[in-house]
Amino acid sequence: MRRHQAQVKSRTPVSARRVPDARLGTMPVLEPNPPNGQKKLLALLGVIAAIVVVVSIIASVAQSMG
Predict the structure, then answer these.
(1) Does the keyword Transmembrane apply (predicted)?
(2) Residue 66 above 80 pLDDT?
(3) 49 or 36: which carries more pLDDT confidence?
(4) CA 46 to CA 54: how far, in whole Å?
(5) How far apart are CA 54 and CA 64, in angstroms?
(6) pTM across the whole model
(7) Which 3-state string (H, E, C) describes 1-42?
(8) Which end is more exposed in the chain, N or C (fewer Cβ atoms within 10 Å of the end residue's Cβ)?
C-alpha cells in the first residue's frame, strides 16, 4: 500500500524563486565616456529646477487666493 504524501506548498511566490540563467555572467556596463554627458546632466538638472520653480509659483498663487 502506498501512502499519499501531503504536498508541501512553498511560501515563496513564483516570481521570487531563483531560476538558473546563463546570462548572469554578463552584467550591463555603463559607457565609460558617454558622449555629451555633461550637457545631458545639465539639461536634466535644468528641467528639475524648472519643475521646482513652477510648483512653487503655483503654490504661492494658491496660498494668496485663500
Answers:
(1) yes
(2) no
(3) 49
(4) 12
(5) 16
(6) 0.50
(7) CCCCCCCCCCCCCHHHCCCCCHHHHCCCCCCCCCCCHHHHHH
(8) N
